[in-house]
Amino acid sequence: YPLLICRQEGKVIHPRGTWRNTYFSEEIKEVVKYGYEVKILKIMQFSRGRPFDEYIDHFYNLKKNATDPTTRYIAKLHLNSLYGMFGRTIDTLRTIIAKNHEIPKILSRYEVKTYVDISDELTLFLINNKLDYGNIRKLNIDLDLNLIYSTQSFVKSNVAVASSITAYARIEMMKYKMIPGIELYYTDTDSIIVGKPLPSYLIGDELGQMKDELKGGVILKGVFLGIKKYGLKLNDKIISVFSGIPRNDLSWE
Predict the structure, then answer these.
(1) Which of 2, 37, 166, 204, CA to CA, is 20 to 30 A from 92?
(2) What region does 131 belong to: left with phi over 0, alpha with psi -120 to 50, or beta?
């Protein structure tokens, strides 16, 4: 089974053969164990650390011991959304409704994509949180203004954090994909559908273990069309997963 991924023409694929892409070093070390041959062309080095240990321990224990669904949901949300926050683009669009006297401040702080006059006193701006210094200089010259250069940033990003965590997740999934004698039909970020039960020591409710989503049930038929696009037929029910459509809303037909 191909283990590395790359994006091609807007789609994420698992390529075979020869190609060029950017990968996290630990992921490269892992796939070499399975026969990949790698030629390193360029390296960018980041510092190492474990900045989230206390955070993860806190919210995992909160989720595990929660007695009400709201607390459990909030704790799960904190766990699942953390790493993605560090992968956000700096170019984040948002809207601001401003009074006339606030407009110079907005022009000095943000790149304005477009605006709409709501009334004589209010204007709606679609702005980019990323500051455009060239735009400010141009406004100062064209409008004879003296707008202040702000260095305030609203989006905290670190692509090294986000990309390494997703790579570690793929590394973790490799041990499930490559079990000898077990055929793999579908895989996602943290799930697999296979032809035989996994070894019992891999199944459980603890962090890092797989959960049996079917509670011992067996899939009679499966249709797999793509990422988060599949249907499963069991003895007593149909499971459908299709991105953009509510779960189990599709019939087998």
Answers:
(1) 166
(2) beta
- Look at residues 33, 36, 40, 29 and name the one whose alpha carbon lies nearest to residue 14: 36
Tokens 């141009």 correspond to 138
Q: What angle do CA 85, 91, 92 make, to 5 degrees?
A: 65
Quickly state the pLDDT bin for 220 (edges 50, 70, 90).
very high
* Planar angle of CA 253, 192, 83, nearest 5 degrees: 115
The pair of three-digit structure tokens given for residue 199, joined into one six-digit string: 């070894």
CB 135 within 8 A of CB 162: no
Q: Could you tell me which of 78, 80, 85, 82 has the C-alpha nearest to residue 62?
A: 78
Find the length of the chain: 253
Check residue 170 and give left, alpha or beta (phi > 0: left; psi -120 to 50: alpha). Answer: alpha
